[in-house]
Amino acid sequence: MQRMMLSSTRVLGALGRMTAARQTAMAPTLASRPFSSSSDAARDRRYHWVEPEAERLIARAYARHRQLAQRDAVSPNGWKSFPPSISIADLESPAIEQEYHYPPKTRGDRIAKKLVDYGEKLMHLFFREKYDHHAVTLETVAAVPGVVGAAHRHLRSLRCMKRDHGWINPLQEEAENERMHLLIWMQHTKPTGIERAFVIMAQGIYVAAYSVLMYLSPRTAHRTVGYLEEAAHRAYTDYLRAVDSGAIPNVPAGEIAKKYYSLPDDAKLRDVILHVRADECMHRDFNHHLSDLYDAKEEDEFPTKMGEEVEGKPSEAKEGASSGVGRASVVMAASGKKTGPDGAQ
Fold first, then answer.
1. Within this chain, do residues 91 and 148 fall inside the same structural domain, yes or no?
2. 27 lies in a domain?
3. If we measure between CA atoms, which residue out of 319, 116, 149 comes closest to residue 234?
4. 148 and 229: one domain?
5. Is the domain of 288 the same as that of 327?
6. How far apart are CA 41 and CA 62, in angstroms?
7. How buried is 5 (Cβ within 10 angstroms: 0-12 exposed, 13-18 middle, 19+ buried)?
8. Is position 59 within any domain?
9. pLDDT at 306 (0 to 100)
10. Do residues 153 and 288 share a domain?
11. Number of domains, the chain
12. Which domain holds residue 221?
């Protein structure tokens, strides 16, 4: 019995040292923290837990990918119009690299955080330093909440016979974006048979569990996704540092990534990781925002488009309504009294 207790103590101590070492390596200069400000304006922002500069850059970066359902009536072939490019310096700036954390406020928040923490530890024990394989598996899971959440809001709109107020499209876009991440990483690595079996099992469990959670507590469901995306940000920061250290070769970017993000022909793997990490920041903050709306009993209000408050510009959804171009699918959300191009959502 004493030998067993001694062995268990050694194992726990080793795991603790591994975790501490990883945390030290992950954030040598930037610590995980919520943004805080003493000004009333900062506290009143919908995305108050991130710095305004981070919100602005995340919104700009997310607008750079090509949504598959989006058609541009202005361009000759309908696919060539992209927003202004965002520089690599912006994508690797401290504002985006910073590991922002939404502090749990309720018991549901704390449960969601613990569930994600356990899942993150399991993933790191399974993949260790195989960051490319970790990314593939992560995206198969991350693509689930968006489609489940969109279906939940769609059925809710039908069941209650009322408008959805702009939640469905950004949730569908989130799922599509995560699925495209998977296809991008499949051009850089191939999962093993064990990893494929793990994905099949995890997807079945996660779809069922998240669907039930979405029905019982949408607030907790979106908070869980917010914490999951915080973990995704950490995972891609690890991936980026592995490339920078030479542990993973900085190979040319795949064709899917170059077309999806409109990258130059000489783009590298590192550039793709930076764009994908910025996408995860958007999903992180948008889901925390949706959870806040449920908490404030504002689930029948339009979500606020990220970057709208700090840019001080009118939402593109309103612009699309007047121009007739289908811009509602471009924006993450609209706020207040804004509607999509058809006048209702």
1. yes
2. no
3. 116
4. yes
5. no
6. 25
7. exposed
8. no
9. 86
10. yes
11. 2
12. 66-301
> Which two tokens mark 292?
């806040």
Q: What is the pLDDT of residues 212-228, one digit of tens each?
A: 999 999 999 999 999 99
Residue type, 272: V
Q: What is the pTM of this model?
A: 0.78
Task: Check which CATH number belongs to the domain holding 233 and give it.
Answer: 1.20.1260.140
- 266 and 297 inside one domain: yes
Contact 79, 70 (CB under 8 A): no
Mean pLDDT of the chain: 79
> What string of H, E and C letters represents the secondary structure of 296-344?
CCCCCCCCCCCCHHHHCCCCHHHHHHHHCCCCCCCCCCCCCCCCCCCCC
> What distances in angstroms separate CA 91 from CA 52, 96, 213, 301, one per listed residue?
15, 6, 34, 31
Q: What secondary structure letter does DSSP report for 261?
A: T
Residues of the chain short of pLDDT 70, as ranges, are 1-43, 66-84, 312-345
The verdict on 265 and 325 lying in the same domain is: no
**Is residue 62 within 8 Å of 277, Cβ to Cβ?**
no
Q: Is 3 left (phi over 0), alpha (psi -120 to 50) or beta?
A: alpha
Q: Counting beta carbons within 10 angstroms of the beta carbon of residue 103, is it exposed (0 to 12), middle (13 to 18) or buried (19 or more)?
A: exposed
Query: Can you tell me the distance from the alpha carbon of 141 to that of 260, in angstroms, rounded to the nearest whole number?
Result: 20
